[in-house]
C-alpha cells in the first residue's frame, strides 16, 4: 500500500518505521526537520516505566514498546534506552502510587512499595515527607527522544520511505477509496493517510467536535555537583507528586546536567502562538521542588526550554480511524506521557491504516469522545 503520513515526531516517525518494515510505500511529511524543539519530542530524555498509573490497559502497550527499542538500537548502533529503575513519591492514595499498583497487579509486573523511612534509607539524598510513601518500578528508565526519532527516520528511509521535511501538509481530502493531500510544493495521492501532528492535531479533532488542549510546560537543567554524583548507574528516575504542579520528574545526570520536568499545571496555548521564553519564576519553582525533596543535589541553573503537551478531553490516547473517512487514521497519544509508548502507538497507527480488523485499540477509540 502507499501510505501518506503527516507528522514525523515521536509517534509519526515510529509509524513510518513500522510501515516501512512491513514493506509499505511510505511518503511522509513534517512541518520542520525532526528531531526539532518546536513540538513535544525534545529535551534529551524521557521517562519510561513498565507500570502505568494511567491505567492497566497501557501496560501491554508499553511492554510492546520495550520489545521494539532493542530492535531499533540494533539498526541505529547506539543505546536509546538506559534502565535505572524508577521511584515514585506521593501520598498512598495518589495515582503515582495507587494507580501504579493497580496497573502492575493484573500483569504481574514486579514492583516494591516503601515507607518514607525505607525510601530515606535506600536513597539518602531523597527526603520524602512523612505523608508520602514510595513505589519502586525496577523496569523504569530513560529513553533518548531525539536519538530515537533520528533512528526511526533513518531506518524508514533505508527501507525506501520518502521523507518530505520542512513541508507541512496544508490540506487533505478523501478521494474515492484513497486520499489526496496538498502541500506548498505539490499534491500527493495515496491509499491511506495517517495524521500524527501532535499539538497541531487540535484543528483536525476540533472539526470532529473533539477539543484537544495544548499545554505549555517547561524543562530545566541544573549542574550536577562533584560532591554528589547523580549518575544513571546508581540513581533511579524520580517522579514526585507535589503541590506546585501535579508532579515533578527528576532525571539522573546526563553529561553533568540534572533535568527537571514539570508535569501539569501549565497554561493552555496553541502550537502557533505559544510563548517559548522562560520566566524566572519557572526556574525558581523547579529549584524549590529540588531543594525540598533532593536538597544539595543540584548546583547552578544551566538552561531551560518549553515543550508542549496535547491533552485529550479525558486524558486518554486517541488511536483510531476517521469516523467518516476510514482511509484516514488519527493519532493523538500524548497527554504528557506518550513518549514511552510511541514505538507501539506508531505501530498501532500503522496497523489501523493497513489491516482491516484491529481489535486492541478499543480503549483509545474516538467514539468515546463523540
Ligand atoms: C515537558 C514534557 C515532558 C514529557 N515527559 C515525558 C516522559 O518523561 N515520558 C513520556 O513517556 N512522555 C513524556 N512527554 C510526552 C511525550 O514527549 C509526547 O507524548 C510525545 O513526544 C508526543 O509525540 P507526537 O508525535 O504526538 O508529537 P510531536 O513530536 O510534536 O510530533 C508532531 C509532528 O507533527 C509535525 N507537524 C505539525 N503539523 C504538521 C503538518 N501540517 N504537516 C506535517 N507535519 C506536521 C510537527 O512538526 C511535529 O514534528 C513529555 C512531554 C513534554 C512536553
Strand and helix map with partners:
Layout: E1 2-6, H1 10-21, E2 25-29, E3 46-48, H2 59-76, E4 81-83, E5 86-90, H3 95-104, E6 112-114, H4 116-122, E7 133-137, E8 141-143, H5 145-158, E9 162-164, E10 169-175, E11 178-183, E12 186-190, E13 192-195, H6 201-206, E14 213-224, E15 237-241, E16 247-250, E17 257-263, E18 267-269, H7 280-293, E19 298-311, E20 318-321, E21 328-332, H8 342-354
Parallel strand pairs: 1-2, 1-13, 2-9, 5-15, 13-21
Antiparallel strand pairs: 3-8, 4-8, 5-7, 6-7, 10-11, 11-12, 14-17, 14-18, 14-19, 15-16, 16-17, 20-21
Helix pairs in contact: 1-5, 1-8, 2-5, 2-8
Flavin-adenine dinucleotide is lined by residues 6-12, 29-32, 34, 39-41, 46-47, 168-169, 196-200, 217, 219, 249, 261, 307-309, 334, 336-340.
State the main characteristics.
alpha+beta; FAD/NAD(P)-binding domain; D-Amino Acid Oxidase, Chain A, domain 2; nine-stranded mixed sheet
Quick rundown:
This protein is an alpha+beta fold. The chain contains 8 helices and 21 strands.
What is the count of β-strands? 21
Low-pLDDT sequence parts: none
Number of helices: 8
Name the structural class: alpha+beta
Average predicted confidence as pLDDT: 95
Which small molecules are bound? flavin-adenine dinucleotide
β-strand amount:
25-35%
Order of H and E elements: EHEEHEEHEHEEHEEEEEHEEEEEHEEEH
Measured distance between first and last alpha carbons = 30 Å
CATH superfamily of the largest domain: D-Amino Acid Oxidase, subunit A, domain 2
Q: State the helicity in percent bands.
A: 25-40%
Question: Largest sheet at a glance?
Answer: 9 strands, mixed
Shape, please?
globular
CATH class call of the largest domain? Alpha Beta
CATH topology of the largest domain: D-Amino Acid Oxidase, Chain A, domain 2
Whole-angstrom Rg: 20 Å
CATH-scheme architecture of the largest domain: 2-Layer Sandwich
**Overall number of structural domains:** 2
